[in-house]
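Researcher: Following up on the earlier apo prediction. This time include the ligand. It's zinc ion, with the SMILES given after the sequence.
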Amino acid sequence: MSVYDLVLSGGRLVDGTGNPWYYADLGIAAGRVAHIALPGTLRSARTVDAAGRCVAPGFIDIHTHSDLTILCNRRAESAVRQGATTHLLGNCGMSPAPVVDGRLAEIQHFWDPMATLPGVSWEWRTFGEYLDALQDGGLGINVASLAGHAALRLAVMGFEDRPPAPAELHQMQSLLAEAMQAGAFGLSTGLVYPPGCFAATDEIVALARVAARYHGFYASHIRGERETILDAVAEAIDIGRQAGLPVQISHNAPKWGAPHDATANLRLVDEARARGQDVTVDNDVHTDLGPALIDALPQPFAERGVAEVVDLLRDPAARRQIRDEIVADRLPAFGPVGLLKHGQWQRITLMHAPRTPAASGQTIAALAQARGQDPFDTYFDLIVENDGAADAIFDYIDEANIRLLLKHPAVMICSDGAVSATDGPLADPPSYAPCSFGEFPGVLERYTRDDPVLPLEEAIRKMTSFPAQRLGLHDRGVLRPGAWADVVVFDLDRVHDRATNLFPHADPFHNFPHQYPEGIDTVLVNGVVVVDQGEHTGELPGVVLRRP
Ligand SMILES: [Zn+2]
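Model: Understood. Below is the ligand-bound prediction.
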C-alpha cells in the first residue's frame, strides 16, 4: 500500500527557486509534498503521468482584484485554469472590508458593478468577518488579502477631498490594526483613484506605521504612472523608509505619457535596495485595459451617478471644463487617461456600445474622422449616446517596457486581473480582461517559449517563490518536502493563451470573449486536484491564508 495520496510521475520539475529543471517523481500526502524521488520510483493508487510536461509550484498571483468576484465564482475558474493557486486580494487600496454602517452605500458605489454580483452579501463589517465569509463557502484557490487604504478612508470619511481630522486618522489606524490582527498581509494604496488620491503622504505614513507594527508590507498603485512616475515611485519608497516596512510597487509599467522607459523607475528601486531597503515590484504582461469610457473622467466625478455625469456632458460649458481637467491632470489620473491627454485616440478601441453597435470595434480616431469631429467630442458623445454604458480597450502600455520589467530580478509577475469565468454571472456580459484568463500561460507561451525574454525557470520563480517570499509564505511557491502541494502540470509545447489580443486590434477580436488557456493540464491546491486534464473538478480545497 502506498503512503501517497497522489504521485506526479516523471515530469520535469521546475521547483520555483530558479534552479534548472530535473526529472523527478513528486509524492503528495496530506496536502503536502511528502517526497521527491528519482523518476518512476514512487507508487500510489492515483498517479498522474507527467512525462514530457513541466511540474511547477502553483502560481502565486500577488496582484489581483478578485475580492468580490471570487464570492460569485468560488471555483475561481479563470484563475485555477491558468495555474494560479493563490490570489492576493485587497490591492490598489481596494478591499471590501472594513465596512462601517452608514457608509455601505458609498462603499458599494465604489465597487460598482461588482458590488451587486450574486454571492456578494455585504454581511461582513470587520476585515476578519470578510475573511470568514471568503472561507465559509469554500474556495477553488487559496486567498490572502491586504487592507485597502481606500476602504479605510471610505469607512471613516467617504469620498471627501480633504485631510483627515486627527480623530479620523486615529479611527483609520484602529480599523487597520483590527485588519492586521485578523490576518491582513499589509496595507495597499491606490493613489490615482478617489478617495485614495485625496490623501497626502503623511496620512499614508501614519497608516503604514500600523502595518509595520504587525510586520506587514506596503503595496502601492502609485500616485501617477505617467508624467509623475518617478516622483510617485520615490514617494512609495519614502513611505516604506519612514514607516519601516517593505514596499511592493504594483504593476509598475510606465503608462502612455511617461517621459522615460521602465529603466528609470527600476533604477530608483535598485538604488533603494542598494541602501538596504526591501523594495520589490510586480507587473503584468498586457498592454491594455478595458474600462468604461466614463472611468476616464476626472476623479471628482467618481462619487456622482452615471446619469448625472451623462447630463453634464450634454452641457457644452461643462464639457469644455471636463476636457480641460483631463488635460491638466491636476491629480494624476489612472494610466489610460494618458491616451486622452496626449491625443492617442488610435489606441482606444471601442468594445461594448449597446446603443451605437456599429461603432464597436473601431477606434476613437476612426470614429472622429468619420463623424468629422474633434475626438474629445466623439469620446464624450459616445458616453452620452450609450447612457454611460460604453467601454473600450485602452492600449496604454508599450510592450518594450513589459520586456524590460520581466528581465529585472526584483520584478515578479502578477495578473492585475480578477477571478472570472466563461459562463455564469461573471460572463453576462463578458468583460474585457485578458489578464484574468491568460496571464501566466501568456508569459509561458510568448516570453519563455516563442520569443524568449526569460529562461523558463526564472519565469516560474517570478510566479512562485518570489511572491511567496514577499508574503512570508515560506511553505508555498516551492516544490520541496514539507511544502503545501500547490502544483501545476503544464505542457510548454502546447501552452496557449486564448484571451490576449495584441495591439493593433483586429475586428472582431479573435480572443474575445476570452477562453480558458490550453496546455495547463493538472492543478493541485493543497494536494487536491482542482483541474484534471484541463477541466475543473468542482473541488474547493482553497484556504484563506492569514499573515504568519
Ligand atoms: Zn492598480
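Model: The chain is about 35% helix and 15% strand.
Researcher: Noted. I'll compare it with the apo version next.
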